[in-house]
Amino acid sequence: MCTQLNSAKRGIATEEMKQVAKDEEVDINFILRHIANGSIIIPKNITRKQHIKPTGIGKSLRTKVNVNIGTSTLYQNIGEEISKAKIAMRYGANTIMDLSDGGNLDLIREQLLEAASSLTFGSVPIYQAYAYGVEKYKNPLSITEDDFLNAFEKHAKDGVDYTTIHSGITLDLAKRIMNVKRHAGIVSKGGTITAAWMLKYNKENPYYEHFDYLCEIAKKYDVTFSLGDALRPGSILDSHDELQVAEMINVSRLAKTAYENDVQVMVEGPGHVPLNEVAANVRLAKSLIGLLI
Question: Are the C-beta atoms of residues 132 and 102 closer than 8 Å to each other?
């Protein structure tokens, strides 16, 4: 399967790359070079039914605006979420993220993909697995490894352009959480679900253990990974503690694995850190990954 990254590595400019170069008013060779080395991405699922406008994200490109929408376990009104998606398009958002975790998520995602027809579209598969656990087992922590993996594959098949994957939090880190005194604990919902599941069953994170399989699926559909920071600090008092840094190291290794498999990657972060530490945090992440030139 020929992904945007694979094409760039071979020096082949896709139509999406040409459009991004035009929109950003830069030379196509600049786009090619930086997609090839991992410092620019163009998330676009090859099965996306809608004719979206390709969006370049990364080095020396314009800042992009993402809009988060979605239902919750306590309140579901798809009409309101569709309205938000249309407003986001009207006022120039570049990407939209469906964070729904309540209601019929397959139907919600289908309708939001249609409503946000021109926008790059993201999602969080662990929320699908969580909702499935509530619906089928009446307990979100009763989900299986297959539920984790099937949720990701379902989103890829449905046309989602990028997915947040909480793959950097491992069983070892989940066990260490209990001994690290944080002021704000784990503020990531996906991270909390994953950590609780690992501790309940004493099993490794399926998104970490089976990351090679995720890469196979992502490459098949040209889905971009947004590697989630499950252990990001929720308070500046927790900034750069051992949990955040250890996960960052894991994520850097996974980013390299994805890159080697021709899968585009962006890395979330840094969470709540003091303003004077933001630049240092970004430099640390880039140096660990070693792709961004």
Answer: no
